[in-house]
Design goal:
CATH superfamily: Glutaredoxin
Shape: elongated
Number of strands: 4
CATH topology: Glutaredoxin
Largest sheet: 4 strands, mixed
Order of helices and strands: EHEHEEH
Number of domains: 1
Length: 92
């Protein structure tokens, strides 16, 4: 089964980021996810782009959530993506 790439742009002392990480970790029990945390404070360009909008969540390089991750919406997106991946794998 193919992994789904999740990137979360975050920084320390961000309560919205902590909530988003909790949702991602909870959902990761049910889906094949590879979660990568990107600390926006480690790169000036990244910081200037995301400082007012974290957390930002990308799923397979597509921005899907800003500020808050809704677990039900995330699961729906992952179900749809999983179905597409499985359909493509079955065609091979």
């Amino acid at each position: 089964m193919s992994l789904i790439d999740i990137e979360i742009y975050t920084k320390d002392d961000c309560h919205l980021c902590e909530s988003a990480k909790d949702v991602l970790n909870n959902v990761a029990r049910d889906y094949p996810l590879r979660i990568t945390e990107i600390d926006i404070t480690e790169d000036e360009k990244v910081y200037s782009e995301y400082k007012e909008s974290i957390p930002v969540i990308f799923i397979n390089k597509k921005r899907e959530f800003v500020y808050k991750v809704h677990e039900i919406t995330l699961r729906k997106k992952l179900d749809k993506l999983n179905n597409q991946i499985n359909s493509n794998e079955n065609r091979k």
